[in-house]
Amino acid sequence: MGALWVVAEPGPEHGLAKISTEIATLTRELGASTGMEVVGVVIAAEPAEPAAELARYVPRVLAIQDADAGVLAWSAIAAVHLAALAEADVPDLVLVGSGPDGRDVAGALSALTGLGVLTNATGVAWAGDGPIVEMSVFGGKLQTSSVFTGGRGIMTVRPSVTTAVPAGTAGTVAARTVSASPLPPVRVVDRVSEAGVAAPIEEAKIIVAGGRGVGGPAGFDIVEQLAEALGGAVGATRAAVDSGWIPYSQQIGQTGKIVKPELYLALGISGAIQHKVGMQTAGTIVAVNRDPDAPIADFADLLVVGDLFEVGSALLEQLRGRSG
User: Fold this and answer.
1) Which of 31, 62, 157, 188 is deepest in the core (most CB within 10 A)?
2) pTM (2 d.p.)
């Protein structure tokens, strides 16, 4: 029986990153369909909390404690421990998030072990002796299926390709010690947190997003008011971000965040493919646009043809009326 590894990434307040819970769910489902063992790996200065959280999703978690993981670059520390662990227990597939930390871990682990890497996966299945990895390429215009030439490898998974669902029964956590050959230390010299940012838009159940059609920074007033009335978060297209109307942290799309809210309200967004790949998995997509032939009409669940400020104001009035 082979093994599937889920590499847990650090989240806020010494917890677990949201993408790791998604990947754990995906891996557990793959393990159930193949009969392969699913193992979570947590590497942290204080691994108890994230390991316990990961155990809600997978049957077995290995917790590796390393004080340097709290002061040096986590990805470099994680890679050497994973490489040492893989010498004793060779995994068939290592899954990690496709964010900055995950990509760094995948690259370093590949260099240390010789395992190949497939990136930005949107799904995975098993056939014969190895995984078949589904990937979105060329800005979401094509979907490809790839395999590892050696049957084993490392895979980075895009955010929001699945919904995190805890297992029916919590798994076990075991402390693990490995003899890792250290890499040259990669020191973190500064951390910058953007002031005034609420919960990450990747975690929002409702997102109200504005595009070029809002016309400028003032146009985002209606976007922000609607988001507040709905209890959601504010998002934007790259055009709005590049114009300086809204911070990059709110950008959704190929070069921004990948989101999967229950409701996505798009105001003045044409629906170019680069934006579509960041929000197309939303539960319900409602778009407001003057142009009935805008690309977003092809994949929105509801298209309202009209002026976004008129429609937005009317919607806001209705929402405030209900709450009053």
Assistant:
1) 157
2) 0.79
